[in-house]
Amino acid sequence: MHSLTIEICVGSACYLLGAQDLLEMIEGLPPAIRSKIDLRGASCLKACGKGPNLKINGELISDVTPEKLMEIIHNHCG
Amino acid sequence: MSQVTEVVKLRRRVLVEIAKLAFAGVLKEKINEILYNVVTEEGPRYRCCVHKERAVLKERIKLGLSQKSDLELIEAAQKAVAGDVADMPVIHVLSEACDQCPIDKFIVTNACRNCVAHNCINSCPKKAIMVVQNRAYIDKNKCVECGLCKKSCQYSAIIEVNRPCEGACDLGAIQAGNDRRAIIDYSKCVECGSCKTACPFGAISDRSAIVQVVSQLKSKNKVYAVMAPAFIGQFGAKVKPGQVVEALKQIGFADVYEASLGADIVTLEETKEFVSTVPKERKFMTTSCCPAFASMVEKHLPDVANHVSTTVSPMIATGKVIKAKESDAVVVFIGPCIAKKAEAAGCSDVIDYALTFEELMCMMVGAGINITEISESEYHSSASRDGNTFAKAGGVAQAVVDTAAALAPDLEVKVHHCEGLRNCKSALIQINAEKLAVNFFEGMACEGGCIGGPGTLTNSKITSKLVGIFAGASKATVAVENETAAAEIAEDRHWHRK
């Protein structure tokens, strides 16, 4: 069962600011945590310039770093 | 380039802002706004204060406009919009940004136990080590930085501190000046960009012709893009080549050529050159397409210079194809490479400007284009599999081996390839001294070849796979099967350096 839906924007503005690093971080998570995440790509989350942007369970978060995302995932997945 | 650090983000934000204003035609009027958009009062703050942050930013913007640092921002913007590129090297130290890292190379840490053996003191050939306050102390006036003390300490209590820029430079071309700021020795520098990638303060950068290219795109001139073969996957792992071509047209390019077409021309010419000169006139031949490698040989191994192929690079070959069709075309090379900017400056009759993939994507974002939303059009490579594989280390050598097998099957090609300038340099010295039985050498400055260049956007492991798939789908396998390349060669457009 997925407990977390993460939509990562891979539009040009977000890609330029490191969206790929976020994708790679999630793909590299241990299977026990990775399996709880429903990972989706988005082409624009309408917050260009503040990227990289993503939505976690529908909530928009801007200027995300791999460290920040890791913290959020751990808070959700324990 | 894979990790997008804060330093990388900052540089890209600045270039996006510059491109945005240039496309809108208000660069001169609004250039000072960048200082306030990129560095806000709320932070984030990497320097002591907002004023220092903006002083650094000013230098960064001027280099982003290819202008000298003594100009005012507005004047620099004016010159860039007019198409002016200051006569200066490609790579610079932003003196405001350089943190003047310490130059004491060996430091005794708290791990020192003031042991009985005192291996450090005994190992020091200069008697530079004594015990002060119950701990080893290195007298900097006597120390020659040989490192024997570090090796001798069984507690690993002596550490070696390297300035990242110095450590990254394989050619000893960057050092601390009297005020501890980094200084580039341009008589040794080959503009490979290693120091730029290494500096954690973002204090080393390269000049950019984004504004000059935007001015051309907005003019009546026909502007052509020459895409280096490493472009596959650079703008997003799922972005298709057809989308890249469409995006380039949307920002104003008349058409797009692949430098891999030039690579096929180079393969054919270089193989002919190899067959006719080795071993008769020289024991071995090296590639010439990596400009940092070619420049390294010229500056650091002048004895080997006559072994470098005289064949032009794929960038120049492709530029010649375009200019032959349309002599007033404006040719912009777009690749993973910083050294190509210096190479382009040296052949301005063929290549008008050179940009990196990073700079192109900043331009796209500045123009408001989201490449993932562009519909995909069908795209076929104009080059062979071997031409497209120039992007990867070992690709040029393989292309020459394949073509030699067709042109001169009896000639034995003993190939060797190296990545990294230090490795290239030592291999060449060995080959020249006949310690390595090699007659064709491929030298690449960047790890992984062009896909690992300092101007890339995507992790080279991903690019390597994607380039492999794209190359595998090429109609022609080897250069000799590429009819367009053969037809161009027949035109004899001076494919060799004088």
TrEMBL record, chain A:
SUPFAM superfamilies named among the record's database cross-references: Thioredoxin-like
A Pfam family: 2Fe-2S_thioredx
Listed name of the protein: Uncharacterized protein
Organism: bioreactor metagenome
Lineage: unclassified sequences, metagenomes, ecological metagenomes
UniProtKB/TrEMBL annotation, chain B:
A Pfam family per the record: Fer4
Domain named 4Fe-4S ferredoxin-type: residues: 134-164, 180-209
InterPro entries per the UniProt record, alphabetical: 4Fe4S_Fe-S-bd (IPR017896), 4Fe4S_Fe_S_CS (IPR017900), Cytosolic_Fe-S_CAF (IPR050340), Fe_hydrogenase (IPR009016), Fe_hydrogenase_lsu_C (IPR004108), Mono_FeFe_hydrog (IPR027631)
Xref: PROSITE patterns: 4FE4S_FER_1, 4FE4S_FER_2
Protein name: 4Fe-4S ferredoxin-type domain-containing protein
Biological source species: bioreactor metagenome
